[in-house]
């Protein structure tokens, strides 16, 4: 029996070590390997057997035969434990769950992929994917013909037919960014890079792709040959690649594809079929129908033209259809390329048919930016540019209007849904919008990320230019100054971070409202920049910053973004920016000093983003002894509606934080949380390591009422979650994760039946050793009705999760363990 005790102690130590790794993995959003879970289950069964052996013989007077039987049972258990200890060494206990490749099964999408010509190509691609002798497939066709849409259909079919275990689809674009491509593939496969160099990441990705699982990687929109090995991709029977391009030569001759499929423009019958379905009821009018067929022909069989024009004319009257045909048949600008001529008039028509000048201006502004546009960046630009007119007083109102406008542009097919935090504008739409902007609106844009641009562009129209964007290129010298008296928007993002900006560069830009100098080295702010009295938005994202104390001279600044910059100390002069409404310090990981009373001086601040940034908050009670900001300073920001913040030391918490106006927040409290940029659609996130000193304070209750994503760790001193908080709370909760508690017996302790967690989609419980019931009391049948993911890990006293009557209402549950 003594040997049994020793072995049990060794097993408990091994179990504890593995569980520590498990808890850390789950906090990082990782899934636990099946063999680890199996091992833990066997341990629990062994522990029960050992306890039963002991308890059945406590206080008993045993004869020799019984003692021999007991000794034999103990030997058997010792042998089992030795086997468990032998199998308890794991190379890794977890893996990152894969992101789902998004699908948008809209009517527009289905109308296109169900065309006979597209179904035929999709069938051929699926057959090639099933051929063991083919691992590299090419799909080519001119811009706007629907290659990307067809690839999304291939992803849908592959997943439905389970042809591959995992699928990753990445848009490459004209200027390949290897780190982004590697990162997007890794995210989809649940791989977390621990290497910084592209070469190291490629090696790590290659190892992941060469494992046992069958993997499909789709690289969409390749403009020039791509070195797959540099990315970390080696095609094989178990790792197949599909490449799409506008140029067949790039695929067959340069990339070595083994099977190629051409996507051609639609024939007249299919083109009309697609157009008719999109255009609505008005095409049924005999007077309109003939004109509509002529308009469909003008779209030259290109789906992008057919979709944008049909949406622009949807349910319009006869006169508008006639005028549209006239516009489509007029001559396009002489300098438009041959490829662009086929879509210029249709896209221009869609632009002109937008219902307001504000929508048109938004299209032209988006064309000034990179192909992938982040919502938060666009809001910064629009607000500083004076894009929002009368009646829009706050950033919250501006964001809501921007959401509405972007929705209309999506409906018009002028922008594409691309990722959670942003969108993409199709290259052809951007090219047409750029021409319109330069010809009619004095906007000039050069987007060259391929290093081909080496000298500053000479543009005769600079003097009348209102907006100027230069993205990419290897320019090594800027002019001393630019004479741009009408310029209001200036966006510069070059590859050479060592490029120096002349001190006089911004002279002659007196009307400038928005200035973005992403990836620039600024030992100090140019003196000419500090004279820009009309500047509203200043973005110094990813910049190498030195002394920026002069920023206090920009008295009219409304938006300041230092996202991902290497700033270590926020200058006290920022306190002079009393009109500031948005301050973005996200991912400024070197920021360690914010002097007292700087934040509290920004009394008009509406949005403050400090995720993965400053955490050196000091106790407000120190007064004159403080060297850093205190959380109590946030109480001076009465207009604050958005807040991202990290508070590792709970002793720094203020008792009466005023958070009643927060519409969006990500707040991490306690020393257990690593900051992870959210990839979900929730806008109110709260992570708490509970402490009795603050868990019942009023500001926590305010956040609790509307939280959408809640994570709780170590709820010490409570037996259930809900009674300790507002019973009306958690009605909007979508994600709930509770872990590491030795005392909690119930999640809910109810005296009367309620509808609990009606919007909850993900529910995770782990390491709750005293948890006996999810709900002590009665639940109404529609409780947890939206639950999609359920995970219960190391909750040994929990006999069942839900009653059968409640579980029957789980219509959406697709992932549970």
UniProtKB/TrEMBL annotation:
Positions of the AAA+ ATPase domain: 133-269
SMART domains (UniProt xref): AAA
Superkingdom field: Eukaryota
Species annotation: Carya illinoinensis (Pecan)
Keyword terms: Plant defense
GO molecular function per UniProt: ADP binding
4Fe-4S recorded as keyword: no
Keyword Cell membrane: no
Name this polypeptide is given: AAA+ ATPase domain-containing protein
């Amino acid at each position: 029996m003594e040997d049994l005790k020793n072995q049990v102690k060794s097993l408990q130590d091994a179990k504890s070590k593995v569980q520590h790794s498990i808890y850390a993995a789950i906090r990082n959003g990782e899934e636990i390997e099946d063999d680890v879970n199996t091992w833990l289950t066997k341990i629990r069964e062994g522990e029960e057997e050992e306890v039963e052996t002991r308890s059945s013989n406590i206080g008993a007077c045993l004869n020799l035969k019984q003692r021999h039987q007991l000794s034999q049972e103990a030997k058997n258990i010792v042998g089992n434990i030795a086997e468990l200890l032998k199998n308890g060494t794991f190379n890794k206990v977890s893996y990152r769950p894969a992101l789902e490749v998004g699908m948008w099964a809209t009517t527009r999408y289905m109308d296109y992929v169900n065309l006979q010509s597209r179904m035929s190509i999709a069938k051929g691609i699926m057959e090639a994917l099933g051929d063991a002798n083919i691992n590299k497939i090419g799909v080519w066709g001119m811009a706007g013909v629907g290659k990307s849409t067809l690839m999304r259909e291939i992803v849908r079919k592959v997943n439905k037919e389970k042809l591959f275990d995992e699928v990753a689809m990445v848009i490459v674009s004209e200027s390949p960014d290897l780190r982004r491509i590697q990162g997007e593939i890794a995210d989809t496969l649940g791989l977390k890079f621990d290497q910084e160099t592209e070469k190291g990441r490629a090696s790590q990705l290659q190892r992941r792709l060469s494992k046992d699982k069958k993997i499909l990687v789709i690289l969409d929109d390749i403009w020039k040959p791509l070195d797959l090995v540099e990315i970390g991709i080696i095609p094989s029977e178990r790792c197949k690649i599909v490449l799409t391009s506008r140029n067949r030569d790039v695929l067959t001759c340069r990339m070595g594809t083994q099977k190629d499929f051409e996507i051609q423009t639609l024939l007249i019958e299919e083109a009309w079929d697609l157009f008719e379905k999109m255009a609505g009821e008005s095409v049924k009018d005999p007077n309109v129908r003939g004109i509509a067929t002529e308009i469909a022909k003008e779209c030259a069989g290109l789906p992008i033209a057919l979709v944008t024009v049909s949406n622009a004319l949807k349910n319009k009257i006869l006169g508008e259809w006639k005028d549209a045909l006239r516009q489509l048949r007029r001559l396009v600008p002489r300098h438009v390329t041959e490829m662009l001529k086929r879509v210029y008039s249709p896209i221009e028509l869609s632009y002109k048919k937008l219902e307001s000048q504000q929508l048109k201006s938004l299209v032209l502004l988006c064309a000034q930016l990179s192909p992938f546009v982040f919502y938060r960046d666009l809001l910064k630009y629009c607000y500083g540019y004076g894009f929002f007119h009368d009646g829009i007083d706050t950033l919250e109102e501006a964001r809501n209007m921007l959401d509405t406008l972007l929705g209309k542009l999506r409906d018009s097919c002028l922008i594409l849904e691309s990722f959670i935090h942003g969108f993409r504008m199709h290259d052809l739409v951007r090219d047409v919008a750029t021409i319109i902007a330069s010809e009619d609106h004095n906007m000039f844009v050069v987007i060259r990320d391929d290093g081909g641009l080496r000298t500053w562009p000479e543009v005769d129209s600079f003097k009348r230019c209102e907006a100027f964007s230069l993205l990419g290129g290897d320019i090594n010298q800027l002019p001393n100054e630019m004479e741009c008296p009408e310029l209001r928007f200036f966006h510069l993002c070059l590859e050479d971070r060592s490029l120096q900006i002349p001190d006089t560069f911004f002279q002659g830009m007196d009307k400038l409202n928005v200035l973005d100098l992403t990836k620039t080295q600024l030992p100090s702010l140019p003196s000419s920049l500090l004279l820009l009295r009309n500047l509203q938005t200043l973005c110094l994202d990813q910049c190498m910053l030195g002394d920026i104390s002069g920023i206090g001279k920009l008295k009219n600044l409304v938006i300041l973004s230092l996202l991902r910059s290497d700033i270590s100390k926020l200058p006290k002069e920022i306190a002079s920016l009393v009109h500031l409404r948005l301050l973005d310090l996200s991912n400024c990981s070197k920021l360690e000093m914010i002097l007292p009373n700087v934040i509290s001086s920004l009394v008009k601040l509406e949005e403050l983003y400090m995720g993965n940034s400053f955490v050196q908050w000091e106790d407000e009670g120190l007064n004159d002894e403080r060297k850093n900001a205190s959380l109590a300073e946030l109480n001076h920001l009465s207009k604050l509606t958005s807040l991202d913040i990290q508070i590792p030391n709970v002793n720094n918490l203020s008792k009466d934080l005023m958070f009643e106006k927060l519409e969006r927040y990500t707040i991490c409290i306690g020393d257990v949380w690593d900051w992870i940029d959210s990839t979900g659609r929730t806008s109110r996130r709260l992570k708490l390591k509970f402490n009795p000193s603050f868990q019942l304070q009023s500001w926590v209750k305010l956040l609790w009422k509307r939280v959408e994503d809640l994570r709780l760790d170590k709820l010490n001193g409570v037996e259930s979650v809900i009674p300790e908080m507002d019973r009306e709370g958690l009605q909007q909760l979508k994600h709930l994760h509770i872990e590491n508690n030795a005392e909690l017996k119930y999640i809910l302790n109810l005296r009367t039946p309620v509808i609990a967690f009606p919007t909850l989609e993900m529910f995770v419980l782990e390491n709750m050793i005293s948890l006996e019931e999810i709900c002590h009391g009665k639940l109404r049948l529609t409780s947890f009705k939206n639950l999609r993911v359920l995970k219960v890990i190391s909750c040994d006293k929990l006999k069942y999760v839900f009653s059968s009557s409640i579980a029957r209402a789980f219509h959406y549950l697709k992932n549970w363990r």
